[in-house]
Each structure stands twice: as C-alpha cells, then as structure tokens.
Amino acid sequence: MSDTNDLEPIDPPTAVEMYLQERSQELADASHQAHRYRLNHFLRWCEEVEHVDNLNELTGRKLHQYRLWRREDGDLSNVSLKTQMDTLRVFVRFCERIDAVTRNLHEAVVSPSLSPGEDHKEVMLESDDAEELLAHLERFEYASFQHAMFTLLWHTGMRLGAIRSIDVNDYDPTQSRVRLRHRPAEDTPLKNGNEGERLIALRQEICDVLDDWIAHRRPDVTDAYGREPLFSTTQGRASRTTVRETVYRLTRPCEFTGDCPHGREIADCEATNDAQKTASKCPSSVSPHDVRRGSITYFLTRDVPEKVVSDRMNVGQQVLGKHYDQRTEEQKVEQRRGYLTNI
Hints:
Blueprint: H1 12-23, H2 29-49, H3 60-74, H4 78-97, H5 127-140, H6 145-156, H7 160-165, E1 171-172, E2 177-180, E3 198-201, H8 204-217, E4 232-233, E5 236-237, H9 240-250, H10 253-257, H11 275-278, H12 288-301, H13 306-313, H14 317-324, H15 329-340
Antiparallel strand pairs: 1-2, 2-3, 4-5
Helix pairs in contact: 1-2, 2-4, 5-6, 6-8, 6-12
InterPro entries: CB, DNA_brk_join_enz, Integrase-like_cat_sf, Integrase_catalytic, Integrase_recombinase_N, Integrase_SAM-like_N, Tyrosine_recombinase_XerCD
Domain Tyr recombinase: 120-337
Keywords: DNA integration, DNA recombination, DNA-binding
C-alpha cells in the first residue's frame, strides 16, 4: 500500500484482470463470473463517464460519484447496490497492495446499510402456481424439454447449475434417483463443489416424465466433452441462459392460465413480444432460484423435516431458514401445533 508518490501507473482493465486472476483459485466459477460482471460496470464507468485511464487518479470523491452513478444506471435496490460496492471494495483493497491506488482508499467505498430483513428475498414460485403450471405442461407439452426440466426443478429444488449438469447416465430409472456430480473441468460445476455431490430420490411420476423425454423427445446429441446431457438441445447441453429463459417464460401466468393478472393485453405485452428473451419483464415471472425457494418452502409446509430438506436441496439449515423458508408465522405455529396435539 502506497502514498501518491509511490504509485505505479496502471489502466483499469489491466488491474481488473490481475485481480480476477488472483481470485480464480479461491472463488467458485459462478462467483468468479459474478465478480467479473460487477467490475465490468466499474470499467464502463471509468471509460465512458469519468474517463479514468490510470487508477492512480482514483479518489474517494470519484468512488462516491461511481456509487451514485451505479445506483441510477442500474436502477438498483439497496441489496443489489451493496453487493456491487462490496465487490468493488475488495478490488480496491487489492489495488492498494499492487501500488495502484493510495493507501486505505478502500475505506472510501461505501455500501448502503440494510435494514433488518432487507437482504431476505421473498420472491418465490407459489406452490399453487407450480401445480397449475405442471398440470398445463402435463396436458399440452408432455415429456417436452420444458416439461421434463421444470418437473425435476420443482420436485428437487435444484439450482440452475445442477440441473444442467446432469447426464443421461446420472439418472437411474431402476432405482428412481439421480446423481449430481461436480465436473468443473467439463463446464458443469456444482455451486458447493464436491460438497454438492449427492443422490436424489425421485417419485415414480417424475421418472415417468424423464423416461418418456429420453425415449421420445430428447435430442440424441453429446456436448463438447462427449457426454450425453440429460437436458439437451439440438446444439448440445442446455446453457444456463436457456434454462433461465425457459423458466421465466413458463412462469408467466398467461403461459399456463391464458389470462394476465396485471390487466395487460397479452398480444401487445412486452413480456410476450419475444417470449424467450423478454419473458422476465412479466411482473409475475420468476427465476430458477425463485422456483428453488418455492420448492423448499413447499417441502417445509408439507412437514418434511428441515434436516431432510437441507440435505436434499444442499443448503445449510441456517441459510435455509434465512433465505429460503417463506412460511408465515401462522403456518409455522399451526405445524408445531400438529406435532404437539397428542402429547
């Protein structure tokens, strides 16, 4: 860490690449990509707004200006802005170590304070909507890519990365289960690495859908590593973008009810103009992670023990309680009452 006279000139893109290279061995792939994504906004600000060619010029005032710009540019909530600024602070601290910015400059990177519970996301797919959607898929799109994928996603609460990582031979129909494997060298890492590897039991009706998908509708292709992905497209293994956009599209109410709860004209709605690319603009559509949150809450409301849900969904019980369990206090107390009635 250096004073102004000791700084060595360095342009922002070079510093960011040095930072990302240093963090590559300690961050999971998804986290590493998230850091790159957040710092890309900083690089854009340096180039297009503040015209910073040398990080030696960075000051506390400029970092404050960046914070204001980033909130406005991204229309960010406090939670999202905090995530962005926390990453920037770590980057600036790294820059201090390589003599790129002045000593203790990271202290000028201010993140918004969150009120209690503000970092607790409450968006999820409600179980009634999930059941109605699955019934629609069962009737009109049976054993299609979207039916098979969403059925497994809802009934297992898998993460996006996990569901696209599955190969055909990871699914065992005779034992009614699927195995998750961490294979980062072949573009299918699990969020928790080797700790995320596990066997997941499946109900027979889920296996029936997967069996028919594989037998009749799955494109018979391999990925770039010669593996047979369970959820394939004609181009190979379904990408994260494909899974995400499919979930956004499927969870629009107009997709499975034919009606819009927001009073929009469906034919003219921006969320239906390009169904795969703009579906997230529907106020009611949700992400794969929101499906996961809804699935976990559904299992908990059905009196499945938290330890069982924790193991099945690969999430610690403390994290489960804080970020996934969306049961109301009334639901929880009535469930407890059921356990205590006969004591």
